[in-house]
Amino acid sequence: MERGMTADQLLASLWRRKALVGAITAAVFAVGAAIVMTRPSMYEASAVVRVEPQRPGEEMVQRTVSELIEQRLLTVRQELMARPVLQKAIEEMNLYPDIVSEKGMETAVAQMRKDLQVRVEGETAFEITYTNRDPQVAAQVANRLPTIFSEETLKLRQAQAARATDLFTEEMGSMGKAVSNWERKISQFKVDHLGELPEQMEMNMRGLERVSHELQTKSEELRVAEARRSDLARARNAVDSEAGRLESAESGLTRALVNARTTWTEDHPEIKRMQTELDGMTTRRKEAEGRLWAERAERGRVASLIEVIQKDIVDLQGKAEAYQARLNNTPKWAHELGVMNRDYEIARTKYQSVVSRKVEAEIAQELEAKSSKSLFNVISPAGVPVTAARPDRMTGLVIALLVALGLGILTGAVLEMRDDSLRDGSEVRQRLTLPVLAVVPDMQGKTERRVLMPSQGGRNNVSSPTSLN
């Protein structure tokens, strides 16, 4: 049966069971002390790394790695705890060989995460603390991890810069093809509509004016030629009459001369006169016939000239119609060519922008490679620890002692609460309903003598007890 106790009762009960409480306390303390003293000593080594800003490079050229290096401090713990960094450190420094051989690399990486602490210090620095049983290994790992992290970070940034350069290179290739396609389309369009392009409008207008002027000139030449042909036609009739008349007159003189010769001799004056007249007539006839042939040739030349002029007029009219058709089609082709030129200019502008960005990306990639050595600076390298960081043996012994005392006291209290023995008169009065007549004290090996002294009135009184040895 359990019952409550006061502090005095608890102390009394512990005193009655001091041997048991002491044994439990000693046993528990011995176990705790053994645990504390047998735990291996763990040494901690810390290194402080500062991240150097890269502002000069950003002022010279726009970087393709958009994330500032100091912004990586926000995730530096996750990145340092990542498998690539830890696995490289484990493989390089041969850490946790037993765990790697028995349970694999993943378990070794998990164990290293437990032994590693990363704290951000300020805005541009972080601290790496590594714990190991060997102080030399702890210092080596703490000094090597920043270098591995720097190498992995730089590889990542350089890979990002290289990807940006490759992306711009691919984009430049595709944009270059688009620009070339538009150039070919525009060139073919200009070939297909040669003479009807907007830049040729002024030339066509000048050509039309020139052809119109030539048409006027040819029309005037045709009018003159037509008039000349009319004059020659009228002259031909007159010339034909004169040549006919001279020929008829010559024929009559010839017959008269023949008849006269039958009558007179050649020396006759009449014969000579008629002969002279016939010679003159013949000369005039030949001259008239010559003029007739010249006029016929002139008429032929004039007719040919008229045909040539008419043909030239037809050709000039065709040219004028062609120039006019070109001028009529120019606005339509100007619109289509304007749309093509607009798209071509857009594509060319994009291409030029991509080319400039590619050049900047290449420069940024070179800057990333050149500035890689100055991104991370170990301002406080880890030294070899002299004293173990844990366990704190003194604190552990104190805790073990306190736990042992607590268990001892708790054991004594529990046993006392479950003990139903009656130890004094107060307990008897509390737990029993019967009246208490007397209480016999615990002599604890001693004897008492009570002296009966006579009292007044014939009664005996009990005197105070006297202890006897």
UniProtKB/TrEMBL annotation:
* Record GO cellular component, one term: plasma membrane
Instruction: Please give the start and end residues of each transmembrane region.
Output: 394-415
Q: Name one Pfam family in it.
A: Wzz
The places in or outside the cell where this protein is found are: Cell membrane
Superkingdom, taxonomy of origin: Bacteria
Q: How does it sit in the membrane?
A: Multi-pass membrane protein
Give the matching InterPro entries.
Bact_polysacc_biosynth/exp (IPR050445), LPS_length_determ_N (IPR003856)
Q: Domain named Polysaccharide chain length determinant N-terminal: which ranges?
A: 9-91
Q: Which residues form a coiled coil?
A: 208-235, 271-326
Identify the keywords attached in UniProt to this record, alphabetized.
Cell membrane, Coiled coil, Membrane, Transmembrane, Transmembrane helix
Q: What protein name does the entry list?
A: Chain-length determining protein
- Source organism per entry reads Myxococcus llanfairpwllgwyngyllgogerychwyrndrobwllllantysiliogogogochensis
Where is the organism placed in the taxonomic lineage, from the top? Bacteria, Pseudomonadati, Myxococcota, Myxococcia, Myxococcales
